[in-house]
Design goal:
Layout: E1 4-6, H1 11-19, E2 24-26, H2 33-42, H3 47-63, E3 70-80, E4 83-85, H4 91-101, E5 105-116, E6 119-132, H5 137-145, H6 149-154, E7 168-172, H7 175-178, H8 183-192
Parallel strand pairs: 1-2, 1-3
Antiparallel strand pairs: 3-4, 3-5, 5-6, 6-7
Helix pairs in contact: 2-3, 4-5
């Protein structure tokens, strides 16, 4: 399979690629995600469109620096009743997010984009439906206290592969999508890529 450049500093995304024998080099994009989200929200974009756009921006930016190389950009967002929820920037914000999700269903949307020479050549978006159990405030605080800062700010308020699994009464969707990389579709595309 072809070697790709991963336009992300996400350790979990790199791990998923490694586990699937996809050789990759990490080159974070450092795009201004907040201003892109803000602009898209002002124009009425859905969480799904925002996720797709961010993945594309990341891949395109990095691919401008690497001639003829395939660059993979990815982005994940939470959609609760049409409202976009991004990664928390503080523990207080994380608590607010957990309270918002508490006892409710939401979508975790993961988008991926492959770019070459600064242009998107393929993209895919997948959704998983998660239903969070009902917790009281102390239980939510206890959960947050067990999550290290690095994990909290990198992977949103839950990690399905670890501690976060216990938050949910129902999970309908691909585990890799929830972790931020719908790997099966990426493998399918790369296997046909010449």
């Amino acid at each position: 399979m072809v070697k790709i450049i991963l336009a992300s500093k996400s350790k979990i995304r790199k791990e998923i690629l490694d586990k699937n024998n996809i050789s990759s080099q990490v080159e974070p994009s450092y795009i201004d995600e907040d201003s892109i989200k803000e602009s898209l929200l002002k124009n009425g974009a859905s969480p799904e469109i925002i996720s797709k756009n961010l993945a594309e921006h990341k891949a395109n930016k990095v691919s401008q620096k690497f001639n003829q190389k395939l660059v993979l950009g990815a982005d994940s967002v939470i959609d609760i009743e049409g409202e976009l929820i991004s990664k928390p920037k503080s523990r207080e914000e994380a608590m607010l997010i957990l309270k918002k999700l508490n006892g409710k269903k939401h979508y975790l949307i993961s988008s991926v984009c492959l770019s070459k020479d600064g242009n998107m050549i393929w993209n895919y978006t997948d959704k998983a439906l998660l239903e969070m159990k009902n917790f009281n405030e102390n239980e939510l605080k206890d959960y947050l206290n067990r999550i290290p800062d690095e994990a909290l700010y990198a992977y949103n308020v839950y990690q399905i592969e670890g501690e976060g699994k216990m938050l949910f009464s129902n999970i309908d969707g691909d585990k890799n999508t929830i972790m931020g990389l719908p790997i099966n579709k990426i493998k399918e595309y790369l296997s046909n890529f010449k």
